[in-house]
């Protein structure tokens, strides 16, 4: 089984990390190409492209200008670098060594810049959401750039698994980069929906959904779940304040 999640806009590069083990992103050359395209943009163009403030565009402008493939400089393992609601639920700082190993083998982070990242892959601070319409040699947006690459990656990543399950805990923005038509037919794609019971109805509340995705990934990693039967049991499990 492989779990996919989205990255986070907020980053943490100062907190002490529990493990020094790291790996190298598989599509580092692709990230280098995209940063070359981003380096062409002015601060004002970044504001327009990403719909962010000038202050944020200025910070990211300098990130792009200084970006290179040197993993010995200004990098951090992805699972300790992202700091959004999903990652607060994931709580990777609490993982022991065997749980980190399980996460490394089974958890994948989709990324607008790096394509896909394993938990221990070293990354640099960046902001590049998958939905950004950055023109590139494959088309007018990042979906056209990454679609074939990431669909093939997922197929290959699952080909040796006994139970070929893709657990989609990513947002719609990131999950739709995968071409469902070309995902191998023997791969079962599961996309849980998280709702809170409020005022007599079950409702999707985005901020809680993000936390719940991280909590579910945490539970799977902590319990080393890799079979569909084990996954079905989660419907009876309370994780934090959420029932899955």
TrEMBL record:
Cellular component terms per the entry's GO annotation: cytosol
GO biological process: response to hydroperoxide
Pfam families given in the database record: H2O2_YaaD
Family from the record: Belongs to the UPF0246 family.
Protein's UniProt name: UPF0246 protein NCTC9836_01043
Organism: Clostridium putrefaciens
Gene: yaaA
